[in-house]
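In the design runs reported in the main text, the only information available to the sequence generator was the tokenized backbone. The following block is the verbatim input for one such run; it is reproduced so that readers can re-run the procedure and compare outputs position by position.
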């Protein structure tokens, strides 16, 4: 079974907005055994939309469209689809009620412009949008399903997961596709591939597929299998993962698709321990990652953002001569930062970072990308030096994730 994704919007073509919708839809379709044969981005013109839709319906049984469903005049997808399927726009009472409810939550009445959001092509099945005002639309004609969804990512994702996928499963006979995800931190993609090369050859011979999905500081491994027997496929996957884990145990923090802050939070809650942070070069990014997890107040007490040396001495009471003699980016200073943060804030553990994120500030002795990370806890303090590279954004991300991984392993 084949599918095609069409994204609509001039903002995508000129690079003003990154197309994350296609990545999400493509991954979900693939996971459900539907092969994506093409992804196309087109401008907000009737000719472009009609041309892309015509071509897609010749290649695929499923066409997913996102974008162009807003209330303004440049959003023409709905009108164009009505013309394409030779139907008219009609007022949908359920959608109108949803739109009115949506605005009532903000104490507002529905304008005439937004009331038009409840107009949908008569021949489509309206997919109610409980996170916005633009409904989705499901067309089924001549053996091809065409689904039009809002371009706003969180609205699209909700509609796709909760309504489109169940309808696709009803409409088509979906194959069994199973996958397992292993999350790693602190090992590069190429080194990881070399380490598990033999294992990868073995699972490939058994009909499984392995994908490496790298991001700064993280490599996600996805093992996938398809077949007719769900139980058999599941057993093969589980056996493959069990053989993999001993090879990469040092770098693995999850055997499901969750983030490192989530995995660390689960360990902190299970152990009943608390955490605080003292950040310099990471600029509060560690605290941001931790507090992005719901319920993190159960184990995260707070942070000091001591970016300048004066903040280190004033807030953390780091002796000035310690900084002058060793430099702010040093084992001695980052160790003192972690220990003082733990003492002042009163947490079981404290993570501290000090480094040169770049692009300026490096020296021959301490080049850009040099970062010291310290972890202070009940059993003492450990500090480690890292060389992350010359890209500021990646250095901050990798330093933050490396710090979290240090504590994750400590709690094992």
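Verbatim output:
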């Amino acid at each position: 079974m084949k599918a095609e994704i069409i994204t609509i919007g001039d903002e995508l073509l000129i690079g003003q907005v990154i197309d994350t919708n296609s990545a999400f839809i493509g991954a979900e379709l693939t996971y459900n055994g539907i092969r994506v044969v093409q992804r196309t981005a087109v401008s907000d013109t009737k000719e472009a939309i009609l041309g892309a839709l015509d071509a897609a319906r010749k290649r695929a049984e499923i066409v997913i469209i996102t974008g162009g469903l807003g209330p303004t005049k440049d959003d023409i997808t709905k009108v164009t689809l009505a013309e394409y399927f030779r139907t008219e726009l009609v007022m949908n009472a359920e959608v109108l009620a949803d739109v009115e409810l949506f605005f009532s939550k903000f104490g507002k009445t529905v304008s005439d412009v937004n009331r038009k959001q409840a107009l949908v092509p008569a021949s489509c099945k309206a997919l109610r949008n409980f996170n916005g005002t633009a409904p989705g639309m499901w067309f089924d004609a001549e053996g091809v399903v065409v689904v039009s969804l809002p371009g706003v990512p969180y609205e699209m994702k909700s509609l796709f997961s909760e309504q489109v996928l169940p309808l696709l499963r009803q409409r088509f006979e979906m194959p069994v596709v199973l996958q397992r995800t292993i999350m790693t931190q602190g090992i590069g993609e190429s080194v990881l591939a070399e380490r598990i090369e033999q294992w990868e050859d073995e699972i490939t011979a058994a009909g499984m597929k392995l994908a490496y999905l790298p991001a700064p500081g993280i490599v996600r491994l996805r093992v996938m299998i398809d077949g007719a027997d769900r139980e058999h496929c599941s057993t093969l996957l589980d056996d493959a993962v069990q053989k993999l884990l001993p090879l990469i145990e040092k770098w693995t923090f999850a055997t499901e698709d969750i983030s490192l802050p989530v995995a660390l939070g689960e360990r902190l809650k299970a152990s009943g321990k608390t955490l605080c942070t003292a950040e310099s070069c990471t600029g509060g990014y560690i605290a941001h990652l931790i507090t992005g997890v719901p319920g993190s107040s159960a184990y995260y007490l707070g942070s000091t953002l001591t970016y300048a040396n004066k903040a280190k001495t004033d807030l953390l009471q780091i002796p000035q001569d310690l900084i002058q003699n060793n430099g702010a980016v040093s084992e001695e200073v980052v160790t003192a930062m972690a220990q003082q943060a733990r003492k002042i804030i009163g947490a079981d553990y404290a993570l501290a970072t000090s480094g040169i994120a770049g692009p300026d500030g490096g020296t021959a002795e301490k080049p850009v990308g040099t970062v010291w990370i310290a972890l202070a806890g009940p059993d003492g303090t450990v500090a480690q030096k890292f060389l992350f590279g010359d890209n500021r954004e990646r250095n901050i991300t990798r330093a933050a994730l490396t710090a979290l991984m240090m504590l994750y392993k400590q709690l094992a």
